[in-house]
Amino acid sequence: MPGRWRRTAGVSVGGEATTVHFVVFVLSYSRLMYVGLSPRPIDTATFVRLHDAAFHYFGGCPEECVYDQTRLVVLHEQYRELDLNPAFAAYATAAGFRIHACEGYDPESKGKVEAGVKYVKGNALAGEVFGDWGHLEAHVRQWLDEVANVRQHGTTGEAPRVRFERDEQEQLGPYLTPASLAPQGPAETRKVDKTGLLSWRANKYSAPMAYQGSRVGVRAEAGELVLSDLESGEVIARHVISQDKGTVVRNNDHYRDKAARVADLEATIGEQVGQTTGARLCGLLKATSPRIYKDQLVALRELLRQHGDLPQALLDQLIDRPVLTATQCREYFEAYAADPGRFDDPSPPSSPPAGGGEPLSRYASVLPPAREVSCDLH
Predict the structure, then answer these.
(1) Dihedral angle computed from the Cα positions of residues 322, 327, 332 and 338, in that order, rounded to the nearest 10 degrees
(2) DSSP 21
(3) CA angle 127-130-132, nearest 5°?
């Protein structure tokens, strides 16, 4: 994962020209991208937190991360012997990835991410106007999901998301936030009112509308107000803490009707495979992975578009599974593409081609991609 960091001026946030500091993370094989933002210059603690967010976005951790020689990573180098920043090295050890630092003054060694930095500046941020910091964060996340990671990449000729889910996702190692970063429990709790707002130190902050009428955990962390689910401990929102009084700080994404997005995806899948089959496939995906259901639907929709018409016998085998994920759907589709005749037999196979059954190597072969990610801080 090559990496790069930058700051960019001229972005209007809350009616003021604002300097935005950001880190670009790019998976080297698929070019799947994540952008972490900060309203302040990025220190080691913020750098670690943005890595944590990137790995959760990717759904796993690469074997190696590539950096230029920022003091956030490398304090000193001589004869290519590195004196690493101890705080960041401790995080890398706990997270389970190797650190690779490029030679000094060698930007060409991280071309993948250098291009990503220009893309973020020119396509995601240039000339944009945001009501508040939460609006900026929501805009960048939507841009990642609906523009950057679904476009046809100029080098690979494929959408990064498709290439990632097909070839690279399974190459990532598991990732859990290290215990040193995980909160030990919120210092305070607040009730979210019927408008989706909670009060904290003379100001009000928005929470996702699903938490209306519920209590959430709140804590101050590095100039941000962090909201968390009391049961799971999961972070559900972050806001830059306002220094004023009587201010309402909103993230507009909290008010969007995500149920409508899910319904649209379900309807599209129904059109692709028939309403009855579509409803059963969607139901299985939801039952298996309720927390990432929307992402699973997006993946299935793209897989169905990629593979075109599929025999009902194949779809019936998917429906008959006790659990179902988008990755398993992809494996079935690739097995069919490699050997269509296998699914002509109406009798069920002795073992399914995925999820612990017969190896898929006889149907399809995928070369393992490079397990590397780059990051770039701006």
Answers:
(1) -160
(2) E
(3) 150
CB neighbour list of residue 48: distance below 8 Å, 6 or more residues apart? 87, 88, 91, 181
Give the N- to C-terminal CA distance of the chain in Å, as an integer: 16
Tell me if residue 228 falls in helix, strand or coil. strand
The H or E element containing residue 299 is helix 293-307
Q: What is the pTM of this model?
A: 0.54
| CATH number 3.40.50.720 given to 2-176+373-377 | no
The span from the CA of 34 to the CA of 112, in Å, is: 13
Number of Cβ within 10 Å of residue 312's Cβ equals: 12
User: What number of helices (H) and strands (E) belong to the chain?
Assistant: 10, 16
User: For residue 292, what are the contacts with CB-CB under 8 A and spacing of at least 6?
Assistant: none
DSSP 212-225: TTSEEEEEEETTEE
The per-residue b/e assignment along 277-307, b for 16 or more CB within 10 angstroms, e otherwise, is bbebbbebbbebeeebbbbbbbbbbbbbeeb
Q: What is the largest CA-CA distance in the chain?
A: 70
Give the pLDDT score at 104.
55
Of the pLDDT bands very low, low, confident and very high (cuts 50, 70, 90), residue 115 is confident
For residues 71-90, give the mean pLDDT.
74
* pLDDT tens per residue across span 334-364: 999 888 877 664 444 444 444 443 333 332 3
